Amino acid sequence: MIRDARQHNETVTPNDFEIERLRAALPEYFDKDGNFMLDRLQESLQNGDVNLTKEGYELRFLGKSYAKYLTSTETETVVVPDLKHNAEPENRESENLYIVGDNLDALKHLLGSYAGKVKCIYIDPPYNTGSDGFVYNDDFGFTPANLVDKIGLSEDEAERVLDLQGKSSHSAWLTFMYPRLQLAKELLADDGVIFISIDDNEQSDLKLLCDEIFGEQGFLAQISVKNNPRGRQSNSSIAPSHDYILVYARSSEAVELSGRPLTENEEEEFNFADENGKYRLLGLRQRGVASLREDRPEMFFPIYVCPDSLKVSLDPKPGWVSVVPKKSDGRDGRWMWGEQKSRLESDKLVAKLITKRNEFDIFVKDYLRRGSGDQRTRKVFSIWDDKGFNQQVGTQEVKTLLEADAASFPKPTPLLKRIIEIGSRPGDTIVDFFSGSGTTADAVMQLNSADVGTRKYVMVQLPEKIDAGKRAYHAGYRTIDEIGRERIKRAAAKIKDETGADIDYGFRLYRLEEPSGQVLDQLERFDPDNTDALFSGDYVSKFDLNGTPGHDTVLATWLVKDGFGLTASPKKVTLAGYELDVCGDSGYIIDTGLTSDDVVALVRLLESGELELSRVVVFGYSVEFSVMHELKKNLAVLKSGKTVDVIERF
């Protein structure tokens, strides 16, 4: 746990994160000693006709090595559940999460359970405008000599990196963003996407940073969002009226975003109907680019029309008229369907007499609903100009919900609904680790109420203190997360009152805490190999934080680490007298008091099949040396032949 993390962080290097990713993806290129066999990889690439080059470019900035080091370290915080909040009826079974803490620590915890499972991430990070309050606040905890030793910097570079603290330079901002985006990428599913709001101050740097982390091939779009129709008049030359949203995909494979729902006016275009539903007519002749016969010769062929009945056939018939694709200037064009597709879907082809030209043309029935019954959508454009996206809309939403002007430039829910609609499906998980006033959670609930979706959200917010001079402070709020959590509660009540939809209106609440220095010292001094005396002292209680017993803190921290998530429901299994926490295939021994009789009872349950475990995880401070020895010995030689690993954590 914390001690294990600290020991890991003592030896970590800036490139460990990349090496582990390589080891997971290409294990065959590592030898038995863990060395990467570059020559073997190069040989494989050459055999695969891949060009190798040493030319290229990369983003370089002061603090990059330190940022990579932060990516590789383990968090030294624990996950503290708010038991009172989580026990409330609306929250008890909720699959939504709200995490209060540094988002870098939160991402590291979440990777244990959510890596590769998140479909959509949206973040609205600090823009580094000079007036948004951003400064790099990592206190480092290192001397220049430490950075020279751990990261390989020169003494001059180490001094300059340490000087980033409290700064808002481009390098400071990139050092802040780099590890967060690296870890966010690991959360995304193979078809996952991330949307990042930004303005001109860091747009170019963010683009280069994302190109490096996600790969240039991961770039999907840069969207311009008109959010201030009057323009920001503080600018000395041109008044900006828009911000950006950068969109990147997790995988280099093509990712198809969903379209936006059709407007009422767009639905009115589908003004015909048959037994299959509403449809509109689209010309079969290809328009625009590559629309000539010479571009796709195989798509130039005749279609035959009966002049009387207007029936259509791909085969010639006596008295029927041959129709070929012709452009308005008389040149041969081509159809947008090939002959085979035209035959297979000939029931969708419609002939019409164009009286102006006194000739027939061919059209296609384009249905409002697809074969699966899904409503049609329209591909979004890269410029978003919608009154609902104006920043004043977001401000008014929060002001109305909280009855106070408590948030600075919150994003409007119509904007987040658009992002979630095109970036996810109704059952996906959406993550926002700069959640601020909670707009993303509000948007998720609104969408779920509209389509009875089961989208889940994970919000992360630093408990950033609110200045005493701010309006939010006078409204009774002391930290940003208080605003976000209250907004979500009130938004949930409003949506439930207005729609009555049967959706998840609650959220589980967790806080990330770092044990005090005194506790850390005690953990470091503990010697698990000391056989001179029996175990004494209760180390579990040292993790009693924010009114939550240490047992619950340790268990929550381990459950998310081990892949069970923060919405799991572990059960209690009584041994001889000791209560074992069980989740899935894992048993957890956390509290003191395990005896030899409990070990015997555990073995009996495993042998009889009443309890099926593949491992038992032990809080190393809580079990006496002799009992631990007995536990390991007995679980290593089960008569049934089953294998149960014993894992000690400190």
Structure notes:
- By secondary structure, the chain is α/β, with parallel strands linked by helices.
- Helices cover 34% and strands 18% of the residues.
- It has a ten-stranded mixed beta sheet, with helices on both faces. Strands 20-21-22-23-24 form a five-stranded mixed beta sheet, with helices on both faces.
- A hairpin with a 2-residue loop joins strand 8 and strand 9.
- Helix 7 (103-114) packs across helix 20 (550-561), helix 15 crosses helix 16 and helix 16 runs parallel beside helix 18 (480-499).
- The protein is globular, with a radius of gyration of 31 Å.
- The termini are close together.
- 35% of the residues are buried.
- The mean pLDDT is 92.
Sheet-strand content, in percent, reads 15-25%
Mean residue pLDDT? 92
Helix coverage percent: 25-40%
Protein structure class: alpha/beta
Inertia-based shape? globular
Radius of gyration equals 31 Å
- Distance between the ends: 5 Å
Report the biggest beta sheet as strand number plus sense, adding barrel if it closes: 10 strands, mixed
Strands of the biggest beta sheet: in what spatial order? 1-19-2-18-17-3-4-6-5-16
Q: Could you name the ranges where pLDDT drops below 50 across 5 or more consecutive residues?
A: none
Helix tally equals 22
How many strands appear in the DSSP assignment?
24
